[in-house]
Design a protein that fits this description.
Layout lengths: L6 E4 L5 E5 L3 H7 L10 E4 L5 E6 L2 E5 L7 H9 L9 E2 L6 E7 L3 H6 L16 E6 L2 E7 L7 E7 L3 H13 L4 E3 L7
Parallel strand pairs: 1-11
Antiparallel strand pairs: 1-7, 2-5, 2-6, 3-4, 4-5, 7-10, 8-9, 9-10
Length: 186
């Protein structure tokens, strides 16, 4: 990838999930996830799953890109509503579209769609912004891979075609293009 280009990936085919409630962080730790009570911060897991702590009571889990997502599936299928953990499952696969943007010019591109400053000097690796992108409530996560600048964008799946069109339009101004998800560095 040339430094002046932006690559846009639709990762909506990959698994993602979430949990919410007063006991969520403790319940996730009990199930082996590494995380801290730092809202708007993500934590990489050994199996390459990303655990986004959105609040002291909510996590969003992004499946591994090109890896094993067995643990994510197990977290969803073994959770029981009758437990005393004070947390409940929030499946995210059908509620949120998932896009990834790669390239050094992504912060400039996002500036056309959002008021948050996503420059690497301001918005560090594993930082999260819950904001509006192209007038849609969105979650933006910076999660670099193999020394490559990568931003993940999660938005309402019912508006995925609109968001993809907005991202594609903005990326094209910087020589960007839509790529196959299999080309994202794992």
């Amino acid at each position: 990838m040339a430094a002046s280009s932006i690559e846009l990936f639709d990762l909506s085919c990959l698994p993602r999930s979430g949990f919410k409630g007063g006991g969520t962080l403790a319940a996730m730790r009990a199930r082996g996830l590494k995380l801290e009570n730092h809202p708007n911060r993500a934590f990489r897991q050994d199996d390459d799953i990303l655990c986004l702590v959105l609040a002291a009571t909510e996590v969003f889990l992004l499946g591994s890109i090109g890896g094993d997502n067995t643990r994510l599936v197990e977290l969803e299928t073994t959770w029981q509503i009758g437990g005393a953990e004070r947390t409940y499952l929030m499946p995210r696969r059908h509620s949120h579209a998932w896009f990834a943007l790669e390239g050094d010019l992504v912060p400039e591109m996002l500036a056309k769609l959002c008021a948050v400053d996503f420059r690497p000097s301001v918005f560090g690796d594993l930082s999260i912004a819950q904001t509006s992108v192209a007038r849609l409530n969105s979650i933006v996560l910076r999660a670099d891979r193999k020394k490559r600048l990568i931003y993940h964008l999660l938005a309402d799946s019912t508006c995925s075609a609109y968001m993809l069109a907005c991202l594609k339009d903005a990326a094209e101004e910087f020589g960007g293009r839509v790529r196959d998800a299999g080309r994202l560095p794992s």
